[in-house]
Amino acid sequence: MKVKRDRPLSIIEVRAAAGDPRLGWLSADGWTVPVALGRGGIIANKREGDGGTPRGVFHPRQLWWRADRHQRPTTFLPTRPIRREDAWCEDPADRHYNQPIRLDRAQGGDRLTREDHLYDFIIEIDHNAAPRVAGRGSAVFLHLARPNFSPTAGCVSMTKASMLRLLRRMSPQTRIIIG
């Protein structure tokens, strides 16, 4: 028999903190944790490069993780280890905009293998995914926060402990309500 803690979460809510729109709170099933938001706060009309965290209802697509640094976490989400050549296309003029791409060593781009630990765990969400609209924002993830919880470029970031706790209960059907 599955107990409540074994079931996937149906809803996760992310809200801005009072007094600083770049900080917020993530709440799910009776627990709340601090998060860092985009430098532009939560915004309704997301545009590429604006630094805003998009307002809306989203679903997680999959977990990307650094298998060279961590064991595969427990989750209901599909998982994909991050490889050295993995990157994300943030160029609105590219046909692969807001999609994962593979780069060789000579190419630039938003590589997922960062020296810091921000992308050790990345929850890909379906922001601007179907349909993809050029310029409406790319690479909006849930990922790990900097130690000082400084703002992101538009993502929602949290501590590793909070991320692992969230992953244990997250599924593709979980609704992520930002705003």
UniProtKB/TrEMBL annotation:
GO terms for biological process: cell wall organization; peptidoglycan biosynthetic process; regulation of cell shape. Signal peptide: none annotated. GO terms for molecular function: carboxypeptidase activity; transferase activity. Residues 31-178 form the L,D-TPase catalytic domain. The keyword Transferase applies. It comes from Bradyrhizobium pachyrhizi. Keywords: Cell shape, Cell wall biogenesis/degradation, Peptidoglycan synthesis, Transferase. SUPFAM superfamilies: L,D-transpeptidase catalytic domain-like. This is L,D-transpeptidase family protein. The lineage of its organism: Bacteria, Pseudomonadati, Pseudomonadota, Alphaproteobacteria, Hyphomicrobiales. Belongs to the YkuD family. Pathway: Cell wall biogenesis; peptidoglycan biosynthesis.
